[in-house]
Amino acid sequence: MIGRITGTLVELRPPQIIVECNGVGYEIEAPMTTIWALPEVNQRVSLYTHLAVREDAHLLYGFTTEAERALFRSLLKVNGVGTKMALVILSGMDAEAFALCVHGGDIARLTALPGIGKKTAERLIVEMRDRVEAPGARGHVPQPALPGRAADPAADAVAGLIALGYKPQEASRYVHGLEDAEGLRSEEIIRRVLKSLAPK
After folding, report:
1. CATH assignment of the domain containing 170
2. Of 6, 7, 59, which is closest to residue 28 (Cα–Cα)?
3. pLDDT band at 144, cuts 50/70/90?
4. Where would a tag sit more exposed on the chain, N or C end, judged by fewer CB atoms within 10 A?
């Protein structure tokens, strides 16, 4: 089991990154909460990882904190929740926000995430209530913006949303429907889209 990787961040195309460690480039999928906390490309990075072994692939998932990885693993134990859905959940909210949803019974916020219907949201609230602690007085860590790396941030943002589970037409509409998106990085565009889709 690969539990942690430390190396150089050499590529970032949300939700996938590549970290080079001792000459080997590891493809890692990460939730947007992790993407926003990453340093610039060519900087050193250290991630907690989860290795998912399937018949057709070995997939590596990365997280900036142990709490995110623990939540990801707990989500995988919920009936009907796979790695893709767990990644979507952690991309839409951090571990503390998820705990607030669970303990507050906030079905609306959960169903605002792609691929999560009312029954799945209800199941998450019931099954995860004993697995996540009620949030305390901890403040949220602001999510830093990242410098631009792509020739077409809008196209990269659309691709990132599709990878997170949104339909291509929806992803394109959300991205191109943003106001004042000119000059924004793909990560910032995705962040704004997810924020706009969250229930008020």
Report:
1. 1.10.8.10
2. 59
3. very low
4. C
